[in-house]
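tool_call: predict_structure(chain=1)
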Amino acid sequence: MTNKKSGALLWSSSISILVLIGSGGCGAEIRPDGPKRVVFNEPDGSQRVIEVSPAAELRATAIDRLMRLTSDPSPEIRANTIEALSSVTSQVEPVVALALSDPNAGVRTVAAMVAGRSGLSSLTPTIRGLLDDESAFVRSAAMFAMESFGESVDLSELSVLLFEHPNPRIRSQAAFILGELGEKSAIPMLQQSMTQPMESASPIEKKLFRLQVAEALFKLGHDESIDSIRAALYPSRPDELEATALAVQIIGQIHDEPSIDQLIYLSDSDADIPMPAEVRLGVASALAEMGYREGSFVADEYMDSQIDTIRAQSAAVYGKTRSRENLGKLEQMMLNDPSPLTRVAAAGAIVDYTQRELGQFRGRHTKTMR
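tool_result:
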């Protein structure tokens, strides 16, 4: 939260932790070999005891659960499961290979994007076939994967989609992929795309498109585009909150540290205009992406939400932050939550958390808010 008098950034958990091994209490960290029980105080004065499996064992259980869910009847669950497994390099390739021929276009899209990001070039023949897929989403993702593999691919359709497709979400995806590919020659095209009319798009769809273009431009070295992203942090109407949530996510992904003060303010439940759960949880995730991992107290506020997607988002925050009791909470969510969406999110968060805890988390460092 933000200390309005001093301007200092102060993040603190509302839960005090007492970690117990056996019957004796001590201030131990969760490690691959224990502890087995976590006791912590609830805001109402009661205590909750969570049994915590060893981290390596819990990780194996989470991966097993995710592997089983790759054939779930729900396309949303299948797509989320592929994303959750994307960092498990030893097991993700056969999952992606199967998903590339999934009957659902969204699942095929996710599979192609994961293949490109994970360098699964052995899947090139199948992905090449997706360049003729009936779905523009899938074709765009296939172009991204092929280009990522260094394969010869005609990217001209991306410009057609960016300027002419009637669906603003497909235009947004085309802009995102151009930014991911890192081709600076796309800057003028992206700038021009923001001036093109989109008669059938709603105001929020247009705003989301402009944000996606701004992110792509920033990734390509057009630093001035960050101003448009930062401006979206402050919605003028309730219907702009989706754009605020996207701006928060983008700031985390591009590691815009000058925006940290603004993010902290948005996460403050005592702010003049408190942000909804989606935005506050997004802030905790964005700050964790930048190495500031104290935000699990935000997830604590929403882990018992009646809304499945909010609980799932809370689970994702637990996976990115560093409170000692996170693994225990995630284990309970993975095993007991009534929503498969939340169970998938919790399993994926366990993979994320344990990859970092077991020394396998690459490229990120923990920082501390002061």
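agent: Strands lie at 17-21, 24-25, 37-41, 47-51. Proceeding to next step.
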